[in-house]
Amino acid sequence: MLLPAAVGICLLSGCRSRYVQTTITNHTDTPLRLIEVDYPSASFGTDQIAPQQAFHYRFKVQGSGPVTITFTGDSGKPTNATGPQLSEGEQGTLQVSVEAGDHVKWATDLVTKP
């Protein structure tokens, strides 16, 4: 009986889970393969991102530390890149763009809510 009331109050007050919406975009002419993104306390990945396509994933940050990406791209060899520091409770967006030559660009729009 109390659980439905608590859920209702949370919904009315705008409560929602904090998460980071991530987009990895392949701006190259070759597929990215074996993509893995590591972030504080977990990781995610996908087998392939086709040229000029994107992969979307959202996650909750638990802990703090850098985000990293590993993939096989233009060079045919695994590439590692370290991105921004993430902190527990952050929410917003993280954009990862893979450019020609396996160059990685990072863009964030993250905030920490009390």
SSE layout:
Elements: H1 2-12, E1 20-26, E2 32-39, E3 42-49, E4 54-59, E5 65-72, E6 78-86, E7 90-99, E8 103-112
Parallel strand pairs: 1-7
Antiparallel strand pairs: 1-4, 2-3, 2-5, 5-6, 7-8
Nutshell version of this structure?
By secondary structure, the protein is mostly beta strands. Helices cover 10% and strands 58% of the residues.
Structure description:
β7 (90-99) and β8 form a beta hairpin. It contains 1 helix and 8 strands; from the N terminus they run αββββββββ. It is elongated, with a radius of gyration of 17 Å. Helices cover 10% and strands 58% of the residues. 18% of the residues are buried. It is mainly beta and 114 residues long. The strands form 2 sheets. The chain has a 4-stranded mixed sheet with strand order 4-1-7-8, with no helix packed on it. The chain has a 4-stranded antiparallel sheet with strand order 3-2-5-6, with no helix packed on it. The protein has a single domain (17-112), classed as Domain of unknown function DUF5300 (Immunoglobulin-like). This is Lipoprotein.
What structural keywords apply?
single chain, 114 residues, mainly beta, four-stranded mixed β-sheet, four-stranded antiparallel β-sheet, 1 helix, 10% helix, elongated, Lipoprotein
Order of helices and strands: HEEEEEEEE
| Fourth-level CATH superfamily | Domain of unknown function DUF5300
Mean pLDDT across residues: 89
Low-confidence stretches: 5-13
C-alpha Rg (nearest Å): 17 Å
Which oligomeric form is depicted?
Answer: single chain
CATH structural fold name: Immunoglobulin-like
